[in-house]
Amino acid sequence: MTTKKFYITTPLYYLNSEPHIGHAYTTLAADVLARYKKTKNEPVYFLTGTDEHGANIEKAALNHNVTPQQWTDDMAAKFKALWQVLGIEYDDFIRTTEPRHERVVQAIFEKLLAKGDIYKGSYSGKYCLSCESYLDESELVDGKCPIHKKEPQIIEEETYFFKLSAYQDKLLKYYEENPTFISPKHRAQEIINFVKGGLKDLSVSRTKVKWGISVPSDPNHTIYVWFDALINYISAAGYLADENKFKELWPADIHFLGKEILRFHAVIWPAVLMALDLPLPKQDFAHGWWTIEGEKMSKSLGNFIDPRDITAKYGVDAFRYFIFREVPFGQDGDFSMEAFKKRFNADLANDLGNLLSRTLNMAAKNVGEIPQTYTNANSALLKKAEETDKLYDQNMNALAFDKALDAIWALAGYMNKYIDETKPWMLAKTDPEKTKEILLELVFALRYFASWLAPFMPTSAAEISRRLQSGKIEKYGPLFPRID
Ligand SMILES: [Zn+2]
Hints:
- The model has no long low-confidence stretch (mean pLDDT about 95).
- Helix 11 packs across helix 12 (about 315-325), helix 13 runs antiparallel to helix 17 and helix 17 packs antiparallel against helix 18 (about 460-465).
- The chain has two domains: about 5-290, Rossmann fold, CATH 3.40.50.620; about 335-470, Orthogonal Bundle (Isoleucyl-tRNA Synthetase, Domain 1).
- The longest helix is centred in the C-terminal third of the chain and has 30 residues, at about 335-365.
- Strand 13, helix 10 (about 260-275) and strand 14 (about 285) form a beta-alpha-beta unit.
- It is α/β, with parallel strands linked by helices.
- It has helices spanning about 20-40, 55-65, 70-85, 100-115, 170-175, 190-195, 225-230, 230-235, 245-250, 260-275, 305-315, 315-325, 335-365, 380-395, 400-420, 425-430, 430-455, 460-465; strands at about 5-10, 15, 45-50, 90-95, 120-130, 135, 155-160, 180-185, 200-205, 205, 215, 220-225, 255-260, 285, 290, 295, 335, 370, 470.
- Zinc ion binds near residues 130, 131, 145 and 147.
């Protein structure tokens, strides 16, 4: 018996640039969901990794005077180091230069070649070197790649094609029968229109690119980097290598990705899986882009946000909190230091931090021992906490992370108001029993916060939980000292 695990992936990050907030965002979203599933005792498997082949890697390595292998070793290590800093708990990190991946890519290529889903031809077209992709005339904006704002090069080469055109109707049928496959919903129509517009066969090999996985039966060709990279989702899951593992993981429950690579994941990838007679992933979730202080993040503007700078200064949890509270997951958002500091002071230092320290300090004085459990059927606060718990679960399952956090902070606001209105520090002089009751309500409502915040702010959540343990309550310093 194998139990299916909830299988979560990030895209494999392309190693032509240092990790930035965009990479961190996708990976943190996957981490938040994985940690949430763990709080519910659901078996979960979280895969991330790096995409390491292709002309852009060759070029980057050459520019830095190192071999592509050295370049990718160094860059992959940088990604791993950042994930460690950000508290990412992945189960596997796959690099596309690993033999366990390359073997599977080669086997799949030969399998589809034998089946007729891959065939040899020649191709001439406009190719964006940065996308590593041919672009249709209809996709160009002022003759340029809409993402990279560069003119594509005209390339002619002998190439193998994947018969993408054969899967047009099947794809449309799949989108119709699985309306949440392309998420969020507002991104689906563009993909559907693109497929309805007619799919052309996809060039999946290169003769000019040396840094790639070679076609076993025709070693002059290397396999197109996108075709190679997408396969990681099954090569890491044990496809053609470990049958039990594959049963445990595949199909993926969710592929997290940025909106710029949705077409690869929602069109090419499912078509390849159909050609392999494999079940399709349940969901592609494409999030939006970050601008920095109102500007598009770009190398030339030099406004790349390095998450290491922010987390070194303000803590990892504050960063993790901010990016999911500030912007609805799935939409575009703006990262500004002013907004970050504002949220830190208002939400973390004031609303949550004060609530925790006020409650604990008054409890230390007036309650003494905190019991293991506490029930109070008349408590409006504890009823509200239960309702918040339901709302939180609903929103977490819908990946509406901002709404889940909103619900938590609405309760924090309610609790602060409850303290202001009941004034336990005054009440203690006249009615110690009632004071104790109010403080126990507050302590037990706060225990929910520890579990709710665990996916987003694991270190702070553990600390909150520690401070609220049963037994003797102590006085503590602020959890989030204000930023000035
Ligand atoms: Zn491009």
